[in-house]
Write a structure and sequence with these properties.
The protein has 236 residues and is of the alpha+beta class. The protein has six helices and four strands; from the N terminus they run H-H-H-E-H-E-H-E-E-H. The chain has a four-stranded mixed β-sheet, with helices on both faces. Strand 1, helix 4 and strand 2 form a beta-alpha-beta unit.
Length: 236
């Protein structure tokens, strides 16, 4: 009898020890996962900062090229400006848009996410202005388009799909600059650009200082693009 009680006590002790060990292992795994998560998060944002720094240098270079050409009233080097502009905007679109898509999927509103999103909008606006000015100065054969949208807009994805379709067809001749109106409370430039073009609905497109409200269908979008492009094979 005493031996039986002794065995039961030993089993309880072993079981309790197993639970304690299991608990410790679970805690360690959780802590390790949390630590790795923070490390990866910091690493990802470090990469974003590197992208931002690189874009800053590229933009300053483009701005200086434009100012130099403008000050000399010289269009001899417009081809260089055009090539650099297209390559830089393509790089901006491919790198930062992927970052923003990742941030939107997380559904977490934090300061770092807000900074990334604001930076993306600011980059889009200043590249739009530079592209618009360069088109006028150098008579570039490009179509800069501002695309105003919001995440709670059910028809905006349709407009985005149509723009992506023509971006693939026309390549770097069509430059799309998306502006997320969800951030107008955080980024003052959004209110300024909305006021300039009197944007009250979304989606809204601005092409050649002309405002187009609502979803522009494929056929109408092609006409708008071709109106701005010269000698485009896709427009014949």
């Amino acid at each position: 009898m005493v031996e039986e009680k002794s065995q039961k006590g030993s089993f309880r002790k072993i079981s309790k020890d197993k639970y304690v060990v299991a608990g410790i292992i679970t805690f360690l795994i959780f802590s390790l996962g949390l630590t790795l998560g923070f490390i990866l998060e910091d690493h990802r944002y470090s990469l974003i900062e590197e992208i931002n720094s690189e874009q800053e240098v590229k933009y300053l270079s483009l701005q200086l090229q434009y100012l130099y050409l403008n000050s000399l009233s010289n269009t001899n080097n417009c081809a260089v400006l055009s090539t650099t502009l297209k390559e830089t905007i393509k790089d901006l679109s491919e790198s930062l848009s992927n970052v923003v898509s990742y941030e939107e999927e997380k559904k977490i509103s934090d300061q770092r996410k807000q900074i990334v999103m604001r930076r993306y909008i600011i980059d889009n606006l200043r590249y739009f202005l530079l592209a618009d000015q360069s088109k006028e100065k150098c008579n570039l054969n490009i179509v800069p388009i501002i695309y105003f949208y919001a995440t709670d807009c059910p028809s905006c994805p349709n407009q985005g799909t149509i723009l992506s379709y023509y971006k693939k067809i026309f390549g770097d001749q069509v430059l799309v600059f998306p502006i997320n109106l969800d951030l107008k409370g955080e980024e003052p430039m959004i209110e300024i650009i909305m006021s300039q073009y009197n944007v009250t609905k979304y989606p809204t497109l601005v092409v050649e200082n002309q405002k187009y409200e609502g979803v522009i269908d494929k056929e109408s979008m092609l006409k708008i693009i071709c109106k701005s492009l010269k000698n485009a094979p896709e427009c014949t």
